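Slides due. Your pick:
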Amino acid sequence: MSDIGKSNNSESPGSSESDGRSDARSNASSNGRSNASGDRDSDALLSEPASMVVLGPWRAFRSPMGKLHIASELGPGTVRITSSLSGVDRVARIAKTSSGNLYRFVCPPAQDQVTCGMLVDYAGRAGLAGAKDVSATLWQAIEDKAAELAAQAAAQDNTPPVHA
């Protein structure tokens, strides 16, 4: 897994993932460093069964304790603040939380003021007041990995076959 989502797995008592209802939590994780030299294996999530949630408009926040969380509007009137992230698979564009839930990124971070304001408000109510918005950094790490893989694929396509 990428270092951008590594966790020390310390969680606040009473924190948990929701089943899609609007919720507010404040668990956390991440040292914030991106592993630019990581290969596919270092970005792979453990293969264990977990439900996959497709993120709607989202923003990422680093708590004052250094933990990484995602706030996402999953549907009209439904906002989820994840527990801390334990890892991010930048190739598959999937985040895994410390509670084991999986979240798929299908779009860049939300940009419009109304959505961003709503997500910041929910994050604050979840105990993430004072958290730093790191959405651009997280998305850039995901995009950089995609560009790296595309460049590797292009290089392999341009390599002439070796004949013996």
User: Anything to note?
Assistant: Confidence is low (pLDDT under 50) at residues 1-44. The longest strand covers residues 68-75. The two ends are 38 Å apart (CA to CA). Strands lie at 52-54, 58-62, 68-75, 78-81, 85-89, 94-97, 102-104, 132-133.
